[in-house]
Amino acid sequence: MLGGISIWQLLIILAIVIMIFGTKRLRNLGGDLGGAVRGFKNAMNDKQEDAKDEDNKTESLTDQSSAGDDLKKDAEFSKTKDQDKA
Fold first, then answer.
1. Which helix (H) or strand (E) is 86 found in, with range?
2. What is the reported pTM?
3. CA pair distance 77, 72, nearest whole angstrom
């Protein structure tokens, strides 16, 4: 039982809906609904890919920034080392 509705009642409702709308219209409606769901999924996947690309860009900029900091530290260390020798 599905919430007090038996399978026979569901079959009768389905038969009435088919008689009112016809199978062709129901098939078209199902195809349209499927197309809308596919479009929604594609949009969500594109949005996730854009977010991943943005994260990768941010990580790349962070890596470049930290590499620049390392170069500055190396240059300062070299200056200090040269001054100590003199």
1. none
2. 0.42
3. 9
